[in-house]
Amino acid sequence: MIGGGKNAFIGAIHRAAAIMDGQIELVCGAFSHDPKMAKESGAMLFLPENRTYLSYDEMIEKEAGLPAHERMDFVAIVTPNFEHFTPAMMALNAGFHVVLEKPMTVTLDEAKQLQKKVYETGLLFCLTHTYVGYPLVKQARQMIREHALGQIRKVWVEYPQGWLSNLLEKDGNKQAEWRTDPQKSGKSGSMGDIGTHAAHLAEYITGLKITDICAHLSIVVTGRKLDDDGSVLLQFDNGATGVLTASQVAAGEENALKIRIYGEKGGLEWEQQEPNTLIVKWQDRPAELLRAGANYTYLSNVALANCRTPGGHPEGYLEAFANIYKNFAVALSTKLSGGDPEPETSDYPGVEDGVRGMAFIESVIASAGSERKWTSMTV
Amino acid sequence: MIGGGKNAFIGAIHRAAAIMDGQIELVCGAFSHDPKMAKESGAMLFLPENRTYLSYDEMIEKEAGLPAHERMDFVAIVTPNFEHFTPAMMALNAGFHVVLEKPMTVTLDEAKQLQKKVYETGLLFCLTHTYVGYPLVKQARQMIREHALGQIRKVWVEYPQGWLSNLLEKDGNKQAEWRTDPQKSGKSGSMGDIGTHAAHLAEYITGLKITDICAHLSIVVTGRKLDDDGSVLLQFDNGATGVLTASQVAAGEENALKIRIYGEKGGLEWEQQEPNTLIVKWQDRPAELLRAGANYTYLSNVALANCRTPGGHPEGYLEAFANIYKNFAVALSTKLSGGDPEPETSDYPGVEDGVRGMAFIESVIASAGSERKWTSMTV
Amino acid sequence: MIGGGKNAFIGAIHRAAAIMDGQIELVCGAFSHDPKMAKESGAMLFLPENRTYLSYDEMIEKEAGLPAHERMDFVAIVTPNFEHFTPAMMALNAGFHVVLEKPMTVTLDEAKQLQKKVYETGLLFCLTHTYVGYPLVKQARQMIREHALGQIRKVWVEYPQGWLSNLLEKDGNKQAEWRTDPQKSGKSGSMGDIGTHAAHLAEYITGLKITDICAHLSIVVTGRKLDDDGSVLLQFDNGATGVLTASQVAAGEENALKIRIYGEKGGLEWEQQEPNTLIVKWQDRPAELLRAGANYTYLSNVALANCRTPGGHPEGYLEAFANIYKNFAVALSTKLSGGDPEPETSDYPGVEDGVRGMAFIESVIASAGSERKWTSMTV
Amino acid sequence: MIGGGKNAFIGAIHRAAAIMDGQIELVCGAFSHDPKMAKESGAMLFLPENRTYLSYDEMIEKEAGLPAHERMDFVAIVTPNFEHFTPAMMALNAGFHVVLEKPMTVTLDEAKQLQKKVYETGLLFCLTHTYVGYPLVKQARQMIREHALGQIRKVWVEYPQGWLSNLLEKDGNKQAEWRTDPQKSGKSGSMGDIGTHAAHLAEYITGLKITDICAHLSIVVTGRKLDDDGSVLLQFDNGATGVLTASQVAAGEENALKIRIYGEKGGLEWEQQEPNTLIVKWQDRPAELLRAGANYTYLSNVALANCRTPGGHPEGYLEAFANIYKNFAVALSTKLSGGDPEPETSDYPGVEDGVRGMAFIESVIASAGSERKWTSMTV
Questions:
Q1: Which pTM was predicted?
Q2: Which range among A304-308, B227-231, B270-274 shows the weakest confidence by mean pLDDT?
Q3: pLDDT number for residue B30
Q4: Peptide bond into C87 cis (omega under 30)
Q5: Average pLDDT, chain A
Q6: Which are the contacts of B2, defined by CB distance < 8 A and separation ≥ 6?
Q7: Residue D109: in which H helix or E strand, if any?
Q8: What is the distance between the alpha carbons of residues A354 and A84, in angstroms, rounded to a whole number?
């Protein structure tokens, strides 16, 4: 693991998710630029001192030098955005598979370089768009693939948070500091941090691609350097339209990612904060509540493959995150043993998703700065 | 009453709402252009034959000729949009107060003519934007007036319906026929029929005015003549931004008007389909559920004045509609007895609301046809 | 109308409900024992002075003396429980049909006397068990009649209120005063006031009869004279079992009547505070949300006959109450014109329901005072 | 670990929960009586062959013989009920701390023997009553301890499941087989399997003790050997009353454990299927929604100590289970290092809870067989 020292939020999440299914073990880490912090983190995690590295350069180099059965199988990079590209490229160059936090990089160009490298090396690459790890998100995708709703017409996806309603970055909040800092976060705040999740979710479930966008971004809190709120009108490649909103200043909201998709015959509604229910609304019959783990003959295999508990035993964010890791681990071990991963059991976001995410961010920025209504989203 | 013959949906709603509080009595009507239907409707409603008129011209003329204590006090016009202007103007000219269905007219220009006439005559004019009749909508407005949320930053208002997901207007559905017909409905379908409700609700609760819009309209169902779906980015006069969506092709949705408003300190959420709960989300403490009729020390007087039942005895659409009528009746009887209506007990949408509604429609049409991102909403 | 003077809660509810559909008109009233109040109430309701009576004796006698086309068709009695029997019996003796508030009387014996009189006279008798007026309650009953759930096994019905959590009857609250006074309310507080609604709802929907009960009653608030909380285990005539709870001291609750019924194949859940949704849970497929006014091919005719608005336009307590009146009015006018009322359009609680309600109260009291587990409910 | 072979439901749950926080590592196991299954399970879990034992006798004996720093620290017993007592007693006798599935034993007498042994040895003992691991359950307990609701008056706890609506035990379902078999499960089906959870939850949150019960048990599905449904009236040691229901034949329900508790000032409502929200209903102000991970100044330290993610990132059943293990691990490592565990960070159900659980089952059986209304619950 690169990054994720002992006080980092997302590092602990990654570790809990990675180990949940007993398929992945933490064997080494470069947890911090600060040597003291790096060592304390390693100790806290019961790592031997010789595999607690003080920099990612050192880690990648030394691990590459270990015998195959001893060295790490892949590297998980959980640093702030501006430190994604370099260690990821370095790891790929050294022959390591990579798990990377989103957004993939700081620029679309960097993302494309990584993509090229992944294609050249044939290594596995996983981007932790957590929310597509939920079983009912996979169920929704499967239903749309099977034309349960008919042609898709509308996509409304929203991601309201309220935590940045005040100028938290001036109050010593570390998360707020780097996420609102263009040097560390990139060109967009709200759209980079959460808008990309929303865009990815919309494309993932519908199987459609965003083609054109009309974006309005705002810095709502005075003194902030990056947008903390944005609204985007969307056009998709099948003619469907949509709206994407992402806000970090929707005061009182927690992490209310929600998507609604409508086709000719009905609609789907899913909200991340109650992820074990998928509401299916039909035009000609009563709405249905699909539940994770339950209703076995109705749930698709791909959804069930991502459930750990029977209906009524709620699974949550860590389990969704663990599904990303589990599916990556299945793909990796299949690959390591010479096989071909099956789509149902090895479904995780990859390098193309990362490139599209960066293209989304750059197109939103371009559109927000334009007086024209529509801007093409080009990759 | 003008329009609202025995098979008309909205006529029956108006009558039930008008009589609910025992303040208003139906005394005459011109229910249909079809004499047979007009007469049958009058008979069904227990009206005497001599006050069941065959045209609104006749009704207005004859009623005006009756002694003051006998003739109708006001006229309610519940015809399709294209027949709003003429009878309303005629009624005002004849000295009758007017209750009119929304949208006010077919063009902004007509709306302004009515406004001018109302100002000149000093007569009362009520536009039945039903949804602001709900007590918790009034509560929301009152809370924002009292700065409970601080400065308003975001407004998300949505109005999804699914009933026009098919080409219903070709299947003999009367409602669908006139509402999708530009001759009868006006320049916009979804925005005129339901978008205006959403825009009005947003302005009513926040006390803000929409200044600029960026609209995208679609005809989703092939063969339809008017937009059945639209999305609008909004800017308000205090710098807040928002998104308004209105769709008649959100398959599986009923009448899911919903608004969320965020300020510096928290947010409000209200949904018409469960209108007796107002969710108040706070940035620094747990969300609260305000309930119609309950929590007496927390509900404002204006909210309580629009409740009929104690908490837990749900009120609905007819009661909201009845509040519009009741408040109009209170204003009217106060005026008739020479007094000044009090805002708390005589709060109903008026002629300015109607004019702004028409301006909204015309601006949306203009924006939808423009390649520029933003169009001013001018009245 | 007998009772229901200008400050009475339930009188205003009855009037709003009765007039909602334009089938019933208030023509006379004996609103109060207090002559001043009686007259003011009549004036407030626009009644002529000669039909505002000072006692129900006077009203029944004088109305009976009017010509048939002039006198009232039926009498609605909305007084506290202890004044149900005498005016009801008097009205029946004078040949008037009767609408009576629940519980029917103060003792089971009185209830049986009324029943006998109703049978003898052939007059119509309606008991306002409001909650069975909701369209989805009728839908639930219809589904069970058609064996959608298979054999019924479990019935859980609960009626939590919190309004009597304090000794409100000592604070000048009129409602609390009479409802907690054995002289005016009868032998039971919580069970008489709300437990009877719950028992009636359970029998109405399931079509089953309670045969045995095991009751525990409490006076939770010190100083109160009647039970304010009770729990009852139930056995039904088909072998199903159940639990009924009724509490007036569930602090923070409003009027949360809720019922869940399970059969071999699935279950039904309905809650009065969100009455427009009926949740149907299936053992072998996803749960469904049936909605009032919507899903037309799924809703039974009897449910639709009790809806006024299309789906998504919520109806509430007053509409449910109005359905009782409307169905009574349909039955009455059918009878007056010599016809036979149809079950679908004239479904309202009658004299047998009232007798069973009184039997329930007396059995609960008996069981609560017994050390034996089970007490038969005998009528 | 004893039990929990590769196809066992609860074994996998225990392991995922135990390892989640990186504090506990699986070092050995006796997973099955079937040697093949035992070995395959060990291999699947990456255990060395010499620590994959073929019986728990062997495991306890051999582990006890290992050097202190090598041998297991504690044993987790996840076998069916009838195999709880013997291995637990054996482990305690060998000096191992114990984590045991509930219900603790098959008889109250066995439970008391274990309790005696735990007291004598001073070893730690944890009973996995999972549901008290949820952070908001701890929040509820803390609020009641701090008298937020005033004196507690009512407790309603319900545990509806539907999975045994058919005679599943005859269809080859392993879970159904042993859970409905008196030889393996004990004297009660529904009350032993889920009723004990409900009773424990009620006592845990309120801090009250059940003193008297009035139970009715049923075998609803013909051919079953143990009760699959039961209802229990409760009396608590402070005079409060309550109702507990547990059903395995509530067709269509998943695992809908729910508790409502009312005091003088308000009530609490928590449902396991949406565990991240605690509804607090107040008598004199709006209801509040407390959310796991959020509302930081309102959540107690003990609740926050049991959250892993910030508000809006839902946690579920595995995290609740992991809290039991984490708190046990904290207590154990504190103890191993000579310290005293703090209540806030080492709160897990213990041997007294197990004994009371068995007393509850035996009292319910006694009451169900009695014609008297009330039976004392004696431990």
A1: 0.97
A2: A304-308
A3: 96
A4: no
A5: 95
A6: B29, B30, B31, B56, B59, B75, B76, B77, B78, B79, B83, B87
A7: helix D108-121
A8: 12
**B281 contacts A229? CB cut-off 8 A:** no
Nearest to B324 by CA among B42, B34, B125, B28: B125
Q: Which of residues 243-302 of A touch C (CB under 8 A)?
A: 280, 284-291, 295, 297-298
Minimum Cα–Cα distance from A291: chain C residue: C286
CA distance C314 to C353: 28
Q: Is D21 on the interface with A (CB under 8 A)?
A: yes
C-alpha span between A20 and A36 (Å, rounded): 28
Which residues are bridge partners to A291 per DSSP?
A277
Determine, for residues C288 and A287 on separate chains, whether the beta-carbon distance falls below 8 Å.
yes
Alpha-helix residue ranges (DSSP H) falling in D20-55:
35-44
Q: In what order do the strands lie in the sheet with B125-127?
A: B74-77, B97-100, B125-127
Is the Cβ–Cβ distance between A26 and A45 less than 8 Å? Answer: yes
Residues of A in contact with B227 (CB under 8 A): none
Q: Quick one: average pLDDT of A140-167?
A: 98
**pLDDT tens-digit map of D76-114:** 999 999 999 999 999 999 999 999 999 999 999 999 999
User: Would you state the pLDDT for residue A340?
Assistant: 87
Nearest by CB to B231, from A220, A241, A250: name it.
A241
Degrees, nearest 5: CA angle C2-C7-C13 = 65
Residue D6: what pLDDT? 85
Residue C377 DSSP one-character state: -
Q: Residue B22 pLDDT > 90, yes or no? A: no
Name the maximum alpha-carbon separation found in chain A: 64
pLDDT tens-digit series, residues D164-211: 999 999 998 989 999 999 999 999 999 999 999 999 999 999 999 999
Contact A190, A176 (CB under 8 A): no
Query: Which candidate, C190, C262, C260, C202, places its Cα nearest to that of D241?
Result: C190
Tokens describing residue C289: 């949300």
Q: Among B219, B245, B369, which residue's Cα sits nearest to residue A153?
A: B219
The dihedral sign for the CA sequence D40, D42, D46, D52: negative
Measure in Å the smallest separation between the Cα of A285 and chain C Cα atoms: 5
Contacts of A180 (CB under 8 A, 6+ apart): A164, A169, A189, A224, A225, A226, A228
- Is residue B20 predicted with pLDDT exceeding 80? yes
* Residues of A in Cβ contact (< 8 Å) with D13: 308-309
Query: Nearest-CA distance from A287 to chain C in Å?
Result: 5
**CA dist., res. A65 & res. C321, Å (int):** 81
Q: How confident is the model at residue B340 (pLDDT cuts 50, 70, 90)?
A: confident
- Alpha-carbon gap, residue D55 to D31, rounded angstroms: 8
- Specify the pLDDT at position C8: 81
The pLDDT assigned to B344 comes to 78
For A39-85, the pLDDT digits (tens) are: 999 999 999 999 999 999 999 999 999 999 999 999 999 999 999 99
What is d(CA D350, CA D124) in angstroms, rounded to the nearest whole number? 8
Q: Which of A145, A160, A202, A156 is nearest to A377 (CA)?
A: A202
Query: Quick one: pLDDT at residue C341?
Result: 84
Predicted confidence (pLDDT) at residue A7 exceeds the cutoff of 90: no
- Pairing state between β B277-282 and B266-271: antiparallel
CB atoms inside a 10 Å sphere around CB C44: 12
Alpha-carbon gap: C284 to the closest alpha carbon of chain A (Å): 6
Residue type, A344: E
Q: D1 with D78: CB under 8 angstroms?
A: yes
D6 touches chain C (CB under 8 A): no
The predicted pLDDT at position B6 comes to: 84
| Pick among B46, B273, B289, B296 to test the C interface (most C CBs inside 10 A) | B273
Alpha-carbon distance B1 to B26, whole Å?
8
